[in-house]
Structures are given as structure tokens and as C-alpha cells.
Amino acid sequence: MRQSLALLVYDRRYGVDTAEFADLSEFGLDHPERVYYSPAHSVP
């Protein structure tokens, strides 16, 4: 739970959402071999 809270604080502080999938073409990073960002579960 502590780590989840830390990630939420990080996301709010920097205005990002690190817990969701992201289409890389939205960031100009599109390439046939790169399709999306998938968040990884962190290990405590």
C-alpha cells in the first residue's frame, strides 16, 4: 500500500500517469516495432 501511495504522489507531482497503457504515436515515438507502453509491476 505504501508503494502504491508513493506512485500516486509521483504521478500527481509530475503530472503523469505511469499506471496506464500509452500509445507511443501520441509522443512521436511510433515505429513498426514499438506500439505501446505497458506499465510493469514494481517489486517492493
From TrEMBL:
Protein name (record): Uncharacterized protein
